[in-house]
Write a structure and sequence with these properties.
2 domains, 3 strands, 5 helices, 17% strand, alpha+beta
Length: 131
């Protein structure tokens, strides 16, 4: 059911990953941790679609929110260093942002999902996501 590499030291992580499939909490997924270019964990398992095609190391998925934690950490550091001001408009930092009536949107509005910029205006196709 689970394929890939896992250093023996991290077998408890592998067991947790596998448990999601056994409990049917997950259909298909990959999980990897690399250190200095070398894999510590690089696992995949389950299925990638309703046709029961197996998930493998080359399965493509969207990653819409994968970077939120990273940009929140970076933003916090920049605010702490007085490089960013949450009360300033986004267009203060990015002039082109003020187009389409977005001039008054502040950085704090973007970070707290209160800007009103919450979705794609047109339905996305599978091809859009893979492009």
């Amino acid at each position: 059911m689970i394929n890939g590499y896992c250093a023996e030291k991290y077998n408890p992580v592998k067991k947790i990953f596998e448990s999601y499939f056994l409990k049917q909490e997950e259909i298909g997924a990959s999980f990897a941790i690399y250190k200095e270019g070398k894999p510590l964990i690089d696992l995949c398992g389950g299925f990638k679609n309703k046709d029961n095609k197996k998930w493998d190391e080359n399965t493509i998925v969207n990653v819409f929110s994968a970077t939120k934690g990273i940009y929140e950490i970076i933003t916090s550091i920049l605010v702490d260093q007085n490089i960013l001001d949450l009360e300033k408009s986004v267009s203060y930092y990015w002039d082109a942002f003020k187009q389409s009536n977005k001039r008054e949107i502040k950085l704090k509005h973007i970070l707290s999902h209160q800007s009103g910029l919450y979705r794609f205006k047109e339905r996305l196709t599978q091809q859009d996501l893979l492009d």
